[in-house]
Amino acid sequence: MKKATRRSLAIPIVLAGISLLLSQPASAQSDPPRWGWAQTWYNDEGTMKKHADFPCLDDHEWPYPQWPIDWVYNVDCPRRFWLHENRDHSGHDICVGPGKSNFIPERYSRPALIAVGARKPCP
Prior knowledge:
By secondary structure, the chain is an alpha+beta fold. 18% of the residues lie in helices and 33% in strands. The chain has a four-stranded antiparallel beta sheet, with no helix packed on it. The chain has a four-stranded antiparallel beta sheet with strand order 3-8-5-6, with no helix packed on it.
C-alpha cells in the first residue's frame, strides 16, 4: 500500500474546508457587515486601494486625512460625508450623500478635513 504524503492529505482537507464554507450562509462566510462606516479610496496605478474607514454613528470630523481621495464609498453610512478644502469648512467642498458612492474630482481630492454629518441628503 502506498504511504500518504502531506500533499495528498492536504487536498481532501482543503476540499472539505471549501465545501464547509459553501454550505454556510453568506453572512457567516464574510467579514461582519460594515453598516455605519464610510470609506475613502485612492487610485494606485489603476488599482483602487482603501485609505481608511470612518464610523457613521454620530457627527464627527477628522483633520488632515490621507491623500489623494479618489473615491468615497458611503453606501453603508446613513449620514452625509463631506470633504472640505480647509479645516474651517471654507473653500471648496463636496458631499457624498447617505447610501451613495462617488468618484471625487481632482479639485476635491486633497481635503484638509473630512466630516460625517447630518442624517439627510446632501444640499
